[in-house]
Design brief:
Blueprint lengths: L17 E4 L2 E3 L8 E4 L4 E4 L7 H10 L7 E5 L5 H4 L2 H8 L2 E5 L14 E3 L4 E4 L2 E7 L8 E9 L2 E6 L19 H13 L5 E2 L4 H4 L1 H11 L9 H19 L1
Parallel strand pairs: 4-5, 5-6, 6-7, 11-12
Antiparallel strand pairs: 1-2, 2-3, 3-4, 8-9, 9-10, 10-11
Bound molecules: zinc ion.
Length: about 250
């Protein structure tokens, strides 16, 4: 559980796209997840991944029967290259609007100029979907987590992300800003209060996306529906922060 893999080139971590649940699809790679939401009135993309996997992202969207030209919004969980580097090119070609937390707006200029800025409590509405934005700083100053409802076979599910679980920026010498460690802990406590039936990770290792996707494809059993995983993952993140602090 929660184990990582690394690749010499990001595109070597290519994955088949698939439907997770309801109107939510996985279109990312092993090194960086991207999720597509079909709102019935255009698509929303959460994170675009690295530059050198943009061709895989576009291919994945087509493979699922959608068109990248229907992407209306690209929401970024935070400014880092594994989530935002491919956005400028995709947005240039498709006209999709690039959204990011106002607190990451300056840093993301390394990759693009945002079209709209998000803050805590904002709701992004498109078609049948409403995505709630929660600021969960720590990993970066403007990390956001996203919550929305999806429906499958008449059952409603709460879908949630944690936009920045990595403790790499919480190691001494790698801090992006002051108080990042205490912010991270506060964010975890804030996130714990949410009920999440389907946790979608912004990295495959967060929620075992690959294994669960294979099980879903082969057996039809949907292991993404798991109301315990959210809390378990937050426990894991908290533990990792304390381990990081201890090692410093
Ligand atoms: Zn990051």
């Amino acid at each position: 559980m929660f184990t990582r893999k690394s690749f010499e080139n990001h595109y070597e971590g290519a994955m088949e796209p698939f439907k997770i649940i309801g109107n939510v699809y996985f279109v990312g790679t092993f090194p960086a997840s991207s999720h597509l939401i079909d709102t019935g009135d255009g698509l929303i993309l959460i994170d675009t991944g690295y530059n050198d996997t943009l061709f895989l992202l576009v291919d994945s969207i087509y493979k699922l029967g959608f068109s990248p030209y229907d992407v209306k919004y690209i929401i970024h969980t935070h400014w880092h290259g594994d989530h935002a580097a491919a956005s400028a090119a995709l947005s240039y070609v498709t006209g999709a609007k690039k959204l990011i937390c106002e607190k990451d707006a300056e840093a993301v200029k390394k990759y693009f100029e945002p079209d709209a800025l998000l803050k805590d409590g904002d709701v992004i509405r498109l078609g049948n979907t409403q995505i709630e934005v929660m600021e969960t700083p720590g990993h970066t100053k403007g990390t956001i987590s996203l919550f929305f409802e999806t429906e499958e076979n008449g059952v409603k599910y709460q879908v949630g992300t944690f936009g920045g679980a990595g403790v790499n920026t919480l190691t001494k010498g790698k801090f992006e800003y002051d108080n990042c460690r205490s912010d991270y802990l506060e964010s975890i406590n804030k996130l714990r209060k949410r009920k999440v039936d389907v946790f979608i990770g912004n990295h495959v290792w967060n929620n075992d996306t690959q294994t669960k996707g294979e099980i879903l494809r082969k057996t039809g059993e949907n292991k993404f529906i798991d109301s315990k995983l959210w809390g378990e993952f937050l426990d894991f993140c908290e533990k990792r922060l304390y381990e990081t602090i201890e090692k410093d």
